[in-house]
Structure formats: structure tokens, C-alpha cells
């Protein structure tokens, strides 16, 4: 195709491009996914971690032996099996944005979770009263 | 003019029909403010020489810092100004030797000080003080809102828990307004008046006075005088705490927050008639507010506001308890176990 300016502009294109091409991308994702299933917590660049999350929740016939462990663990969980947390940029020259990807329920100590506001703050107390009132109204409707 | 002095001598109640013989609202305010300033100046003149006191800070990160302040002049606000601007803007209440202390009240002896904000691990005292301050602001707005012909009488501010959803201010309007039902427009104009006060960022100046001075301040209002007598009977030292904001002087059941500028989202949600009472038709004005450091998203605000429009019931028994002890659990009885969050 013609080499034009439109090739450099990517407005609205959401699909990521990794590695040397589509085949390279799939191979790279497969390797990362194998590493995740083996170690249950890995550190990669942010874009790769985000892509692998999607596959980690679908490709369950990868290593059947290990899935005697993972499948029973995630039977009860409704939605997401993985957790991604951002970490500081890589020390190399490329300063890539890194992330840690892990399966939930892994045996390692927990990563940092988002701090929630104290239950006793003003807005949380107001919301608590609101929830209680809604619960009372719902209960009254059920009785009636 | 002669008629007016005769009526003042006879001390006719506000509910009288002769509207022209009372002092106008502005004059009443001016007179109260003048008495307040006089008493404030007198209390300051009790410390002619500058004596030093030592204030130990109990703030996380600054434990044990010693500040040397002036006796009778320095307030927790001035202590915060010695630290950083963050402490000045974020602190709403102070704890002096474990007792709640208004930020602009002068310190009289060496003590330990901690500054409370809205995001502490235990903000119950701050929340109650903020709720009380918003109710006081509502009372001030109501007093200013009506025309000179109509009298507005503020009754006691009921102590309401934060979980009930709205702060209230009981008020008795002129008998001519008995049939008035507030419309959306009038509530919005009251809100605008409150927002103007918030924008002016006025501090609530506290003053501890003896009952005779308080009775003189409220000499034109019989129900306020009764409230003064009740409060002085309940307090251990026999004194009454007055607060001034701008040129309004008001009574309060406990310490108020530091300044009006601490509130950011403020709306007057409803005015419900409570029925005939001792002074006329009692009405309960309700509002909802959130501080500057804890603003809500507009979806959350809308849900809380629709809840604040409903009448808040104040059981009289818990009102008496809540005056002395602000750490009681919420008064709303939980008949059903709370469900998981339904938002």
C-alpha cells in the first residue's frame, strides 16, 4: 500500500501490535501465558500484561496437569481470575511501563490494594444511612 | 416612635401582630453583635501582659512538638498557622487535653493539642461539629432571607445524627406566613444565600459568657432567653457558649467547625411544617452539605439529596443525650439486617 501520513495516525484503532507481526504476537502471548500458569505471578510490560489477561481467562486447556489446581480454585469466582498492578518503569534504557500479573488466590503475599476511605467519614456515614433506609423500604415492600 | 419605646418596655413577644413597633431585624443583629464585641474585648483585656504557655502537639508525624504561644490570645488556628497551610485549611476542630475545642477559641493554659480533620480514623466528633455548623448556617440564612415585615424566630437546633441524612433547624415564621408553602424557587434562593455565606469564608468565633450577658444579647427574643437558661443550667461551669458568624450571634449545643469555607456542596432541601407549638407554627428546615475535602459525585449527591427532602424525625429523648455525648451510636433502629450495597 501507499506509504502515507494516515498510516502513522491511529485514531480510534484499539487493537495492539506486539513483536514483529501477528504470528510473533501470538507466540509471545503464549510464552507469557505459560510463564503465568507456571509461576502464578509474573512481571512484564503493561501492554503485554493487559493482553494476556484476556487470554488467561479463556485458554484453560493449556496445561491440564496444572489446571487440576487452578480450575477448582476459580469454580466459585464469578468474574475475573487475574489481577494486574502497575509498578515503576523498567530500569533499562527503554524505561518501559511495567506491570505485575497474577492469578487470584496465589500463595504469595498480597500486592498493594487500593485504599478505601474510612467507614466513619461523613460521606460514608451518609451513604450508610441511605443504604439502611433503602433496605428498610425494600423489606417493608416485601412484607406488603 | 413613642409607641415603639412603650412596646419595648412592655416586652411584647415576636408573635404580636403590630409589625411596625419591633426593632428591625438589622438593628437587632447590630445590637447583638455590639454586645458580643464588647464582651470579647472585655475578655481580651483580662490578659494585659503577654504571658506564655506551652502547647504540645499530638499530630501524627509531629508528636511532641512544643509550641510557645500567648495566653488568652493564641487559638488552635494560630498554632496551625505555625505549621503548614495544609493544617490551616484541613483542620475543622481541635482537641485540647482530650476535650473538643473550637479552632478560634483562645487557649488559657499549657495543654496538649491535636487538630482533627475529616479524614481521620475517627472523625465522629468532626462530623457532628460539621453537622451543627451547617444547621447554624441554615438558621443564619433563614434569618436574613425574609423581608423586614416578617419576623423569623429561630428555635433550638435539634441534635441530629449524621446517618439520618439531613441537618435540621427549627424555625417559627411570622403568623402572616402560616399558609406559605416553600416552592422550588424559594429553596433555591435560600441555597444561593447559603453559598454566598460560604464564599465569604467567615469564621465562627466562639465566646464563653456568663448567663446575664447572654440574656442581654438575646433581649429581644423570649425563646432564646429560655434556651440560654436551659443551657446554663446544664453546663458544669454555668457559662454559655455563643458563636458569631459575620454579624449573627447564635447559640449552639456543642463546638462548631472553624469557618464557613469548609463546606463546599450545600443545599437547602426542604421546609416541613411540624404543627402548632409553643411559639406558633413550628417548621423544620432541612439541608444537606458536604465538606470541601469530601465532595460527592453528582449521581451520589442526587441520591443523598432526595433522601434529605424527607422529614427527619428527632426523638426528644435522644436529643437530650446527644447534647452531652456526641459519640452515641446512630439513633435509627435497624429492624432488618443491612443488605449489601445497592448502589
TrEMBL record, chain A:
<dbReference type="InterPro" id="IPR036373">
    <property type="entry name" value="Ribosomal_bL17_sf"/>
</dbReference>
<dbReference type="GO" id="GO:0003735">
    <property type="term" value="F:structural constituent of ribosome"/>
</dbReference>
<protein>
    <recommendedName>
        <fullName>Large ribosomal subunit protein bL17m</fullName>
    </recommendedName>
</protein>
<keyword id="KW-0689">Ribosomal protein</keyword>
<dbReference type="GO" id="GO:0006412">
    <property type="term" value="P:translation"/>
</dbReference>
<dbReference type="InterPro" id="IPR000456">
    <property type="entry name" value="Ribosomal_bL17"/>
</dbReference>
<comment type="similarity">
    <text>Belongs to the bacterial ribosomal protein bL17 family.</text>
</comment>
<dbReference type="GO" id="GO:0005762">
    <property type="term" value="C:mitochondrial large ribosomal subunit"/>
</dbReference>
<keyword id="KW-0687">Ribonucleoprotein</keyword>
<dbReference type="Pfam" id="PF01196">
    <property type="entry name" value="Ribosomal_L17"/>
</dbReference>
From TrEMBL, chain B:
<dbReference type="GO" id="GO:0003723">
    <property type="term" value="F:RNA binding"/>
</dbReference>
<dbReference type="GO" id="GO:1990904">
    <property type="term" value="C:ribonucleoprotein complex"/>
</dbReference>
<dbReference type="GO" id="GO:0005739">
    <property type="term" value="C:mitochondrion"/>
</dbReference>
<feature type="compositionally biased region" description="Polar residues">
    <location>
        <begin position="317"/>
        <end position="329"/>
    </location>
</feature>
<protein>
    <recommendedName>
        <fullName>Large ribosomal subunit protein mL39</fullName>
    </recommendedName>
</protein>
<dbReference type="InterPro" id="IPR018163">
    <property type="entry name" value="Thr/Ala-tRNA-synth_IIc_edit"/>
</dbReference>
<keyword id="KW-0496">Mitochondrion</keyword>
<keyword id="KW-0687">Ribonucleoprotein</keyword>
<keyword id="KW-0689">Ribosomal protein</keyword>
<dbReference type="InterPro" id="IPR050062">
    <property type="entry name" value="Pro-tRNA_synthetase"/>
</dbReference>
<dbReference type="GO" id="GO:0005840">
    <property type="term" value="C:ribosome"/>
</dbReference>
<feature type="region of interest" description="Disordered">
    <location>
        <begin position="315"/>
        <end position="343"/>
    </location>
</feature>
<dbReference type="GO" id="GO:0000166">
    <property type="term" value="F:nucleotide binding"/>
</dbReference>
<dbReference type="InterPro" id="IPR012675">
    <property type="entry name" value="Beta-grasp_dom_sf"/>
</dbReference>
<comment type="similarity">
    <text>Belongs to the mitochondrion-specific ribosomal protein mL39 family.</text>
</comment>
